[in-house]
């Protein structure tokens, strides 16, 4: 590619060359014409002298030679002139070069021939040998001298040495050539400078435009002139500024969208028209449990066992189960005009929703079942009473006692359910106060000693010496500990020993309630705090349990920012460990 700079310089040089060529030729041609004219005048004048002062002066041609030699030439430049007189036959009869007639030169050039025919002729630029045999350029003029009748009598043939005029013309030519060369050099330099003033800013703009195209938006070109290039620079700066502004705006929009997408709890995937993934927020990878790899629409559909028929305008929700999770998937095609541009997929993890739903169903089933047993009892005995058992006072009393027990069970179930529901809805307000855990345990032990003694069981509490202050709702802590003690009583045989102890750790107080009862299998340990969970339903029911006791304990411990742990071995016994955070120190209590 030829750059503008060189094009401009070339144009400049061509222009100067043409000007120099035309003007040089003109000068040379006009000088040469002038020289010719001057030579012609001189030669005509000389020929006229010869005619007047030699031919007309002397009658005898033999005297012409002397006359020619004596001819005074007034013009100094005429020193390079030579004159010859030829008779009508063209023979030289006199010459200014020599008086020796034997060494006269003979002439038969076109000028001489023409003059012999009666017509004067001027010839220039002809090369001929001079008297010494040297070949030179001669300018010559032949003039015919006629008699009265008009017949040619003599021919005056004059010559001028054209060498000097040719040399001077050559000098002029070479001067013009040198001047042209100099002018071309100068024009080249000036052209280069001129071209640079145009091309330099264009080069700078081109470089900056290239950087701009590569994404380096911080481009600014200095405006150095007010011409078209200055305007171009100004337009470039405006364009760069607008581009920066637009790109920043687009980037900020993109960032905002990205923040929204990345922080959404729903997964969003976008595929292009070829099914190639173009965007996916992080949650998608967590939900689908895949690595951060490029996935295609087909791969995605296959993984979720879906097909392309799910992609419908408006989007129909499908629920898929994936590694124990439930995910609702909505596939929506997006298009510009009639062309399908791709597919947007929205993933929503509904596992928790499903779990809650399942729990709710299970809960309703459990409650119905728990109510069913005492209800059947009440209904059965009531019918027997109606059918006549009422008349037998003793039997009737037994039946009524059974009805009472069943009603008590229902009441207990209702109370427990109500408690749990209040914990769930946070209706149950806990009245926290600074209490000594040791005293609370002591109270519980005293309350349960009687029940335990019915099975001949012992409850021992290794009472710590120091008080253990916790922030507690005493009634609820009592409820929790009592639930655990009564479980130990229920699931331990006669004569069993229930041991209670309390110890202090860095930040907490831990209460241990251990029995040497039937214990629990390992797989049950993780589930005993679930509502209605029982290791052995029949045994629990027989013991008057409804599977809600430990669930309530868990809720109470959570409300106290504490925790409950279980250690148990089947056939050996169970230990429940309650952990309460220590109450903040209070001066009056600490004394
Ligand atoms: P329940 O009313 O059935 O006792 P809980 O929620 O109090 O309900 O206990 C849940 C289940 O945990 C019980 O059914 C029982 O199988 C088991 N369990 C609780 N405490 C003990 C214990 N000390 N020894 C053995 N099993 C226990």
* Poorly predicted regions: none
Which small-molecule species are bound to the chains here?
A: adenosine-5'-diphosphate
The fraction of residues assigned to DSSP E strands is 15-25%
Second CATH tier, the architecture of the largest domain? 2-Layer Sandwich
Please estimate the helix content. Answer: 40-55%
Q: Which structural class is indicated by helix and strand composition?
A: alpha+beta
CATH topology of the largest domain: Beta-Lactamase
The CATH class label of the largest domain is Alpha Beta
Explain how this protein is built.
The structure is a single chain. The protein has helices spanning 4-55, 64-70, 110-116, 163-213, 228-263, 282-288, 297-303, 351-386, 393-425, 437-454, 474-490, 522-525, 537-542, 549-559, 587-590; strands at 81-87, 92-95, 121-129, 135-146, 152-161, 267-272, 277-280, 317-322, 325-336, 339-349, 433-436, 458-462, 469-472, 497-504, 508-515, 563-569, 573-581. It folds into 4 domains: 6-168, Beta-Lactamase (2-Layer Sandwich), CATH 3.30.450; 263-345, Beta-Lactamase (2-Layer Sandwich); 354-424, Orthogonal Bundle (Helix Hairpins); 433-581, Histidine kinase-like ATPase, C-terminal domain (Heat Shock Protein 90). The protein has 591 residues and is of the alpha+beta class. Helices cover 50% and strands 21% of the residues. The mean pLDDT is 88. β14 (497-504) and β15 (508-515) form a beta hairpin. Residues 483, 487-488, 491, 515, 517-520, 528, 533-536, 540, 545-551, 574 line the site of adenosine-5'-diphosphate.
């Amino acid at each position: 590619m030829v750059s503008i700079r060189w094009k401009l310089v070339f144009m400049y040089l061509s222009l100067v060359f043409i000007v120099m060529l035309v003007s040089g030729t003109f000068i040379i041609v006009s000088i040469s014409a002038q020289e010719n004219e001057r030579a012609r005048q001189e030669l005509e004048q000389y020929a006229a002298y010869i005619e007047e002062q030699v031919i007309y002066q002397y009658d005898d041609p033999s005297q012409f030679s002397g006359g020619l030699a004596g001819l005074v030439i007034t013009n100094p430049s005429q020193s390079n002139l030579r004159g010859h007189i030829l008779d009508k036959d063209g023979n030289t009869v006199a010459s200014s070069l020599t008086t020796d007639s034997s060494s006269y030169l003979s002439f038969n050039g076109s000028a001489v021939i023409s003059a012999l025919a009666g017509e004067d002729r001027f010839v220039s630029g002809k090369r001929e040998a001079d008297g010494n045999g040297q070949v030179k350029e001669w300018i010559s003029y032949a003039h015919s001298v006629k008699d009265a009748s008009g017949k040619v009598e003599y021919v005056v043939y004059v010559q001028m040495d054209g060498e000097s005029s040719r040399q001077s013309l050559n000098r002029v030519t070479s001067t013009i050539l040198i001047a042209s060369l100099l002018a071309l050099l100068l024009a080249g330099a000036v052209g280069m400078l001129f071209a640079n003033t145009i091309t330099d800013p264009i080069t700078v703009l081109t470089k900056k435009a290239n950087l701009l195209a590569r994404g380096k938006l911080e481009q600014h070109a200095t405006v150095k002139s007010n011409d078209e290039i200055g305007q171009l620079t100004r337009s470039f700066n405006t364009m760069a500024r607008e581009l920066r502004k637009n790109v920043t705006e687009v980037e900020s929009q993109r960032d905002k969208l990205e923040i929204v997408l990345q922080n959404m709890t729903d997964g969003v995937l976008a595929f292009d028209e070829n099914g190639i993934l173009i965007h996916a927020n992080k949650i998608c990878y967590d939900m689908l449990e895949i690595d951060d790899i490029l996935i295609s629409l087909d791969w995605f559909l296959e993984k979720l066992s879906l097909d392309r028929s799910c992609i419908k305008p408006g989007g129909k929700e499908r629920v898929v189960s994936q590694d124990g999770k439930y995910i609702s998937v909505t596939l929506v095609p997006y298009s510009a005009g009639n062309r399908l541009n791709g597919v947007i997929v929205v993933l929503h993890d509904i596992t928790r929703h499903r779990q809650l739903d399942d729990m709710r169903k299970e809960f309703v089933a459990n409650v119905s079942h728990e109510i069913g047993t005492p209800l059947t009892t009440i209904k059965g005995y009531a019918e027997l009473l109606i059918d006549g058992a009422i008349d037998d006072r003793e039997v009737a009393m037994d039946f009524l006692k059974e009805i009472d027990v069943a009603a008590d069970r229902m009441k207990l179930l209702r109370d427990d359910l109500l408690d749990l529901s209040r914990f769930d809805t946070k209706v149950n307000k806990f009245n926290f106060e600074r209490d000594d855990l040791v005293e609370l345990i002591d109270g519980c032990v005293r309350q349960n000693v009687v029940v335990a003694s019915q099975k001949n069981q012992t409850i021992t509490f290794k009472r710590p010496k120091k008080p253990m202050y916790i922030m507690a709702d005493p009634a609820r802590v009592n409820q929790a500990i009592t639930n655990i003690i009564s479980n130990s009583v229920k699931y331990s045989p006669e004569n069993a020993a229930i041991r209670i102890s309390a110890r202090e750790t860095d930040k907490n107080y831990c209460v241990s309630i251990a029995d040497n009862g039937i214990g629990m299998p390992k797989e049950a340990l993780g589930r005993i705090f679930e509502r209605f969970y029982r290791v052995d339903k029949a045994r629990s029911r027989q013991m008057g349990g409804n599977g809600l006791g430990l669930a309530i304990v868990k809720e109470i411990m959570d409300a106290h920012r504490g925790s409950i742990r279980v250690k148990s071995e089947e056939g050996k016994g169970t230990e429940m460990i309650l952990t309460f955070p220590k109450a903040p120190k209070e001066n009056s209590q600490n004394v």
